[in-house]
Each structure stands twice: as structure tokens, then as C-alpha cells.
Amino acid sequence: MTTSPRSEPSTVAGEREMLEGWLDYHRATLASKCEGLDDAQLRQLSVAPSELSLLGLVRHMAEVERGWFRNTIADEKADGIFFDDADPDGDFHTGENDTYAEAYAVWQAEIAHAREVAAPAGLDDHGAGRVSRHTGEPYNLRWVYTHMIEEYARHNGHADLIRERIDGATGE
């Protein structure tokens, strides 16, 4: 499965274009870390006792996209895809029948939906969904974009290490 090449975000863009550029860059980075590996390699865990795998990270980011854009911005109240109350970390718990093709398709569908949900909203608009458990305040789209960039950046660091452990590949 091939992915689209990563593009460096503009260095002179306005705020929204900059945020969307960095989010897309990090989405493409995670996809690039999975390229060229088979399903068995993508299910390999980083190192005990961690349950992180590249396939698990893709599934997790599908859930993160879903949670922040569907449930927080659009207030859709969508259930988890790969997890439930019985297995709250189910996105990371991959089995022999779980494939990258399936996870990638779900992830890309959630990204497409996130773009649809965000397109008509302004950066200061907040969703009707969840509020901060710390402050009780709603999340605006700017906060969600910034959090998503942080979430991808953190997990892309994990993906770098997992990929290097699998086949020695390193890089940006």
C-alpha cells in the first residue's frame, strides 16, 4: 500500500493553513513509517511490556481522529471502532486477523470525515461535544488541531523507534 508523499508545511501560511499543514504532515509521517512492511511486521510489539505496534498506532489514531472530530467538534456520539468498555485499549490489541489494509482504510475514512467536520468551522468555534474535565470549558477547533498535532508527533516518535526495531529503517 502506498501513501501520498509528505509535504513540508508552509513557513509563511496563515494560522489555519499552518495548523492543517502540520496535521497533514504528521498524518503522512505515520503512514510513511508503515510503508513496505507486511501485516506480521506491523503487529510486532515495540518491547515488553509495551503493547505498542505500528498497526496499533494506526488504529489508535483512527480512534483519536474519531473522538476529537466526530464526538467533540460534531457531537456525533460515535462509538469506538477498535475498542469498547470490555477492552478500552482494544485499538492497541491487534490479533492475527487484523490487517493494515483494514486499519488504513478506517483511519483514512476518519481523516476524511474530520476534514468535512472542520471545513465549515472557524478556529474559535467550539463543538457541542465534550468539555474539558479540568476546566469545564468546551474545546475550540484551534485547540483540537493543536492537540492532534501533539498526539501525532508523540506517536510518530514511537513509530520511529518501532520501525527501527523491525528493520533498522530510520529517518524523518
UniProtKB/TrEMBL annotation:
Gene3D superfamilies tied to this protein: dinb family like domain (1.20.120.450)
Protein name: DinB family protein
Native source organism of the sequence: Streptomyces liangshanensis
Matches recorded under InterPro entries: DinB/YfiT-like, MST-like
Lineage, uppermost ranks: Bacteria, Bacillati, Actinomycetota, Actinomycetes, Kitasatosporales
